[in-house]
Amino acid sequence: MNLRNTLTLSRGLCGASLLAATLLAAAPARAALYLEWGLDSYEHTVTQSQNILLTARLSNPVYSTEALLGNNILGAFMGPPVDLPYSFSFADILGQFADVVLNPGQSMNFLLGTYSPLGGSAPIDEYFGDGFTIAALNAAGQEVSWTPDRTLRITVLPDENGGGTVPAPASLALLAAGGFGLWMRRRVS
Hints:
Strand content: 25-35%
CATH topology of the domain at 36-157: Immunoglobulin-like
Number of helices: 3
Strand order of the largest sheet: 1-3-8-6
CATH class of the domain at 36-157: Mainly Beta
Shape: elongated
CATH architecture of the domain at 36-157: Sandwich
Radius of gyration: 31 Å
Order of helices and strands: HEEEEEEHEEEEEEH
Number of strands: 12
Oligomer: single chain
Helix content: 25-40%
């Protein structure tokens, strides 16, 4: 191949690349919905009888090209069961999102649900859980979902009056009685 044939071939390849790029750029852009969400806090320190409210934030990221319609939220789902000494009750997710429109770049806060200790009291320990997903439909009717890649951590401490501790008023009374005894002993001497 000589220099002239090489230049002609190069021009032909450049022309074909330019034509392909022009056709791709002229193709209509497809709408795309992305959603992201996460808990406001993934770490909770509670007492044995305390409920845990899980609040969160749902976002339609700026790189979405369509609005997230609240009426298209399918719901929130929990993954495989985790061995927690709590029962979980979802909040009214669909009611919270009814008639909401989140344009790209917008977000909103919501209540995901409540963990309640089984039997009214959770054992003192540290627990981990995850697996919540929120799903919605995009404009084409396809499901879009997001599961945060984070782990929920619950640290359970003793209730304030549990564990055999002496309440502060009794301690004060014991101290006063001791002081009175010392005063009486000194007075007799």
